[in-house]
Amino acid sequence: MKVNIEGAEFDLLAHMIDTGLMERVKELQVQFHAFVPDAQQRLDDLRGGLGRTHEQSWCYDFLWENWSRRTSVTS
Length: 75
Prior knowledge:
Distance between the termini: 22 Å
Structural class: alpha+beta
Number of strands: 4
Strand order of the largest sheet: 1-2-4-3
Number of domains: 1
Shape: globular
Helix content: 25-40%
Order of helices and strands: EHEHEE
Radius of gyration: 11 Å
Largest sheet: 4 strands, mixed
């Protein structure tokens, strides 16, 4: 899944994490946008949520990052 939706990625991924949909995503590439209010805090929160089901493969802050689904999900 590739996400570059000009700031809406924060709401989309929060929803997917909260509803369990993220567990269906094998690979995620996402571009987070820094112009969103509280972008750094929201990014930190999302990374915490993503870390429950995925491992970060690589990251270029506020450019692109990649997450791969873990073989076993932590709660």
